[in-house]
């Protein structure tokens, strides 16, 4: 499949094949999971080739309407993303979500139960700990709107380890969807906003708990390749780190075992983009025998 996609891209780029709707659909279906890249002996970067082709046809033909609206009018403004999820909550409350068009309903089905408050709302009135040891934290759109409790727990762990957690209010979407679907102008605009938001934060490391955001931000240098901001973007990218990688050698024994077994799914953007596999398991098992939490 990957070889087929690469061939389509090559023939399109050398002018021997026009971009048809079917071909575009094949390229759009690539998830960028890199399963083909890691099993390919010379590691041909299918994900990058597909992204480059998408960027080219996005310029030539624009984006399909729904994606255009999502990229330009929802994901690029944090408050609009929150508003969109508030609407989903409302529609679910009045049980009208079954009236969504089929493709929208399929996407809505992927969303878990939505929390009452966003992360920023939960943070009101809570003071973050001050410490000489500081670490940045990138709050993803999903963190803020869907999993705020996870971030609260991450802060708790970091504060217990005596870190001050800095989450600048100016951060926006990492730009993963824009980057993946070839809306590079907007991907760069969002990247600039995030780089600017952390510029005055005085942190050496920017932690995240979202593997897709991590790998996107780690590619900010690639996004600005050949431009005057490339050095600054590379510097930012080099400071982005998965929270499990950061914690793996910091959590020490003494934790209370949890009477639970959890399942863990290796995110493609952790295991295949960043080679992160053992670190989450080490963090879950830290604290001696029996491990505080067993992952399956
Ligand atoms: S990156 Fe994943 S979805 Fe895309 S061609 Fe490779 S295996 Fe298929």
Automatic annotation (TrEMBL):
* InterPro entries linked to this entry: 4Fe4S_Fe-S-bd (IPR017896), 4Fe4S_Fe_S_CS (IPR017900), Cys_rich_dom (IPR004017)
Q: Which SUPFAM superfamilies match?
A: alpha-helical ferredoxin
Q: Which residues form the 4Fe-4S ferredoxin-type domain?
A: 20-50
**UniProtKB keywords:** 4Fe-4S, Iron, Iron-sulfur, Metal-binding, Repeat
One Gene Ontology term of the molecular function aspect: 4 iron, 4 sulfur cluster binding
- Per its UniProt record, what Pfam families does this chain match? CCG
> Could you tell me the superkingdom of the organism this chain comes from?
Bacteria
Q: What is this protein called?
A: 4Fe-4S ferredoxin-type, iron-sulphur binding domain protein
Classification from the root reads:
Bacteria, Bacillati, Bacillota, Clostridia, Eubacteriales
